[in-house]
Every structure is written in structure tokens, then in C-alpha cells.
Amino acid sequence: MAHRLEFRVLGPLDVTSQSGPVRIPAGKQRVLLSALLLAPNTVVSLEELVGLLWDDVRPDSPRAALHTCLTRLRATLDSRGAGPSGLIRTTAAGYLIEVGPEELDLLRFRAHSGAAHAAAKRGDQAAERMALDRAVELWRGPMLPDVRSASLHRDVVPRITEEWLRVRERRHEISMAGGCYDELVGELRELVRRYPFHERFWYQLIVCLCRCGRRVEALEAFGEISGRLREEMGMDPGRQLRDLHLSILRGEPD
Questions:
Q1: Which residues have a Cβ under 8 Å from the Cβ of 90 and sit 6 or more positions away?
Q2: What pTM was estimated for this model as a whole?
Q3: What pLDDT does residue 85 have?
């Protein structure tokens, strides 16, 4: 009897069935499965898949090599799951994987993110916060560290990571509006360590430090992000951060 498979990509690649974990062999099968799961229910072209699997060093017969990889992946999934005919479809343009929110954490994340946006539009901040919390809980990042594909991590993963960063930003904004500054400092320090050029997290950290009466630490944080940007990117902080810094120096309460 076939079992439903569950896939998780918001962290290390993880596949499970009702009978336990499903081991996906390291190498091209993991890359192919990840590429399909990051575009769920969408046809991924043959050319794009070849690029993600082999980067710049392509095999002599890329379509044949891709087909062989797909056959092996289907066999791996079929040995524990729902069968290739019900999971990965072949079209004239490429391949797609058919999954629902109950089967893929990325789709659940987007469903919660969408629910949060809808709640914000109707002014229901409690429902928005609940949906944001559920979305954040799904993240086990960084994404797919066990999948070796330079193209995937350069071209695809950052777009999805950006979705998560926006959810975190909004969740912080709600907490800050409720006066939870001190509770956020530790979390924001960890985030700026992991994402050192994400200026919005630095902005939120500096505001929280100021509201906690830690003005010197706030100025030090601005100095740190300014130095990083100049040394590594050759640029100054954005207007929002610069205005915040000036307000702190002037002692403006708002």
C-alpha cells in the first residue's frame, strides 16, 4: 500500500512517509528533488533543471542524463511513497511535482503568510500575529545546506529566503508596537549575525536598544553596520538607518 510523502525544504532536505524517513541519495537526486519542490506544482523547464543540476559543467547528453536522474529519483520515492505517476509529472516543457500544503512545508509557510496579509488588511492584528508565528515556526533554516548546487543556492534559495525575512520583519514590527523591545534584542542580534547586510534587522535592533535605554549600544550597532557596509560593499547605510542615527544623536524621543 502506498504512503503519502511529506517534504520539508525550509532547512535541510527532509522526506518522510508514514513508515519513517526516506533517504534521498546525495548528489543529483537531491538537487533535482529540491529544484522541483522549490517550484511546487509548476513546470520547471528542462534547460533550467540541467543548469541547476550541473551548473556550468554539463554532461555530453544533458537531456539523457536528466532523464536518468529522474528515473532514479522516481524509483527512490516510489519505494516508500505514492508512486511516480502520482507525484512527478512529465510535460513537453519539463517536469513538475504535484504536492499540497499538507505535503510541503514551503506551501504551508506561504499559506500562513497569506493569512497574515489578509488579517492585516482587515485590521485583525491578533490573527496576523498568530499566522506569522505559525509561518516562522516552519523555518528550520538555512535552506538546503545538504544539497550541493551552486546555481540553486545563487538563483532560487535567496528568493524564498527573502519571503521569510519579510515575515520576520513584520512579526518584529507587531512586537515592537506592543512595547516588547527588550525581548527582541537577543533575537535581532542573532539575525544580524546571520544576515549582516539586511539593514531592516539592524534598524529594528537599534530602535529596540534605544527604547530599552541602551543608547550607547545602539550607536555601537550603527557603527558596526556602517563599517561592514563600507569595508565589504563600498557603500553607506541606507537613508532610513542614517536618519535613525541622526535622531539618536539629537536625542529625539520618537
A1: 70
A2: 0.88
A3: 46
